[in-house]
Specification:
This protein has a five-stranded parallel sheet, with helices on both faces. The protein is elongated and about 60 Å long. The chain has helices at about 1-15, 60-65, 100-105, 120-130, 145-155, 160-180, 205-215, 230-235, 250-255, 260-265, 275-280, 285-299; strands spanning about 35, 45, 55, 75, 90-95, 110-115, 135, 190-195, 200, 215-220, 225, 240-245, 270. The chain contains twelve helices and 13 strands. A hairpin with a 5-residue loop joins strand 1 (about 35) and strand 2 (about 45).
């Protein structure tokens, strides 16, 4: 049962798995042939910049909008929720990729994702067999990788200039957050709770990276998304608890065994936006800034 819960959490994080401007503007597209290598090592060649794009992952969609390509996006996943315009775009992915619908939309480009390769292997092959330009976006695991992904999608869509603006903005936001973190009197100990059954985010996750960037210290030193021991949380006695699921605060406050934890006693339990802290896209630094605001409340 624990294994099942863990799998669900990791899957949800992958799907969730997106601070730049997402406002649609007129991008400057290249007219010459575009050639970019994707996560599978295959080189995708486009004779011109695409104008009908389908995104199979929310993070891809957020990047496209940040590059000013919102009007060119004709299909997204059922999990897309940002920006608001995505709710009116055709849904082509839920549990599985709807290859028939995608083919019927006749896209110039489909952005897949490396994290979907195993589960959607057959669907991806069907799209390729139908002559669809499918580009598998690399699975970013940190901020630098995310910026590389934005640059790559910019190259692929002829919006190199816009991609550079987005990544520069992200670096500026990062520098500002790092500078402000030095003003913290201490580095608060933080427990990140992903689900009520105590799944958490350790080293090598966006949540941990954004927390450390903001100036906090994760009480979890293990790697990845893992189930954690309640006794260890109590023993570590975090100053702050960050959660990313609905009604977490009320659930945590009802735990009798946690009543003496500093974060609980001092009412330092905060519900954060999971998307800002897990999607490899331009809003990651917004997530870091949100965490930093919480850290300063505690200092």
């Amino acid at each position: 049962m624990k294994w099942f819960k863990g799998s669900v959490i990791v899957l949800l994080l992958a799907v969730l798995t997106a601070c730049g401007n997402t406002e649609t503007k007129a991008p400057t597209k290249k007219a010459e042939t575009i050639e970019v290598k994707d996560a599978t090592g295959e080189t995708i060649t486009l004779k011109e910049a695409p104008t009908k794009i389908i995104s199979l992952m929310p993070s891809n969609t957020e990047i496209l909008f940040s590059l000013g390509l919102g009007d060119d996006v004709i299909g997204v996943s059922a999990y897309d929720d940002y920006p608001a315009e995505t709710k009116n775009i055709e849904k082509v992915v839920s549990t599985n990729v709807d290859t028939e619908k995608i083919i019927s939309l006749k896209p110039d480009l489909v952005l897949g994702h490396e994290s979907m390769l195993s589960a959607q292997k057959d669907a991806y092959q069907q799209l390729k067999d139908a002559g669809i330009n499918l580009f598998v976006v690399p699975d970013a695991t940190n901020l630098k990788d995310t910026e590389k992904t934005i640059t790559t999608i910019g190259e692929l869509t002829g919006t190199d200039k816009e991609a550079k603006q987005v990544t520069t903005s992200m670096e500026d936001q990062k520098a500002a957050i790092e500078k402000k973190s030095k003003e913290l009197k201490t580095s608060p100990k933080v427990w990140i709770e992903i689900s009520p059954d105590l799944y958490t985010a350790g080293k090598g996750t966006f949540m941990n990276e954004m927390l450390e960037l903001a100036g906090g210290t994760n009480i979890v030193t293990e790697d990845g998304f893992i189930p954690y021991n309640e006794e260890k949380v109590i023993e570590q006695n975090p100053d702050i608890i960050l959660s990313v699921y609905p009604d977490a605060k009320s659930i945590i406050e009802k735990r009798t065994a946690w009543k003496d934890i500093t974060a609980v006693k001092n009412d330092q339990i905060y519900e954060m936006d999971a998307n800002k802290l897990s999607r490899p896209g331009p809003r990651l630094l917004e997530g870091a800034a949100d965490i930093q605001a919480v850290l300063f409340k505690n200092n």
